[in-house]
Write a structure and sequence with these properties.
alpha+beta, Beta Polymerase, domain 2, two-stranded antiparallel sheet, 11 strands, globular, 2 domains, 18% strand, single chain, seven-stranded mixed beta sheet
């Protein structure tokens, strides 16, 4: 597997200051699949106030959410503090966000098993929910209760269908059934969000919606 120079450079910097850095999400998924990718998403056990002092170029517009952008080897990359989230009350936003130190506490908030894979600085894969197996079996599967995950954020329907199409994967049976049961929730979404997913390649698979 290829090395990730931006990750190697930044992970060493974080380690030298007593923190850990991980690659997560679609970056790891595509890296394992050998697919080309340009975006890198990093998570860390450091808080923004911990890391900003030793980052020479950083943007902290969203630091209150635990997210900053850092420039490394000429590229701007998102780094987010590991976190866990409370119950969703409005089909979009969690009731609270709590920063944590362990990726095992961070993964349940993510949407699909194949997007909840972490790489540590030694390129050791951290897989808490069977994401690697689903990747090997070409399956899109929600983490936890699929109905609950969709009701938290109906945009996940669009993402599930988009990833299935983009990767030529199948929707895992319970995931597919939950999507069908909750498809009407797409009408609650901001139309701009639907259009954004369509630009990324989402095509509704079952029936026309208002999006």
């Amino acid at each position: 597997m290829q090395r990730l120079p931006e990750f190697d450079t930044l992970a060493k910097l974080y380690r030298d200051h007593g923190f850990s850095l991980y690659v997560v999400g679609g970056s790891v998924r595509d890296w394992l699949l050998g697919r080309p990718f340009s975006d890198l998403d990093f998570v860390t056990d450091a808080l923004p106030e911990d890391m900003l002092p030793y980052l020479s170029e950083a943007r902290d517009t969203f630091r209150r959410f635990g997210s900053i952008q850092v420039k490394v080897l000429g590229h701007w990359i998102d780094v987010t503090t590991l976190r866990e989230e409370g119950e969703y009350r409005d089909h979009r936003h969690p009731s609270y966000v709590r920063f944590v130190k362990d990726p095992k506490l961070d993964y349940p908030r993510r949407d699909f098993t194949i997007n909840a894979l972490y790489l540590d600085e030694n390129y050791r894969l951290l897989d808490y929910c069977g994401g690697k197996k689903d990747l090997e079996n070409h399956l899109i599967r929600f983490i936890g209760d699929p109905d609950k995950r969709i009701q938290e954020d109906p945009l996940r329907i669009c993402r599930a269908e988009r990833f299935a199409r983009e990767l030529s994967f199948s929707l895992e049976p319970e995931t597919k059934a939950a999507i069908k049961r909750n498809y009407s929730l797409l009408k609650t979404l901001n139309p701009a969000k639907c259009e954004e997913e369509k630009k990324k390649g989402w095509v509704p698979l079952w029936f026309e919606t208002q999006c």
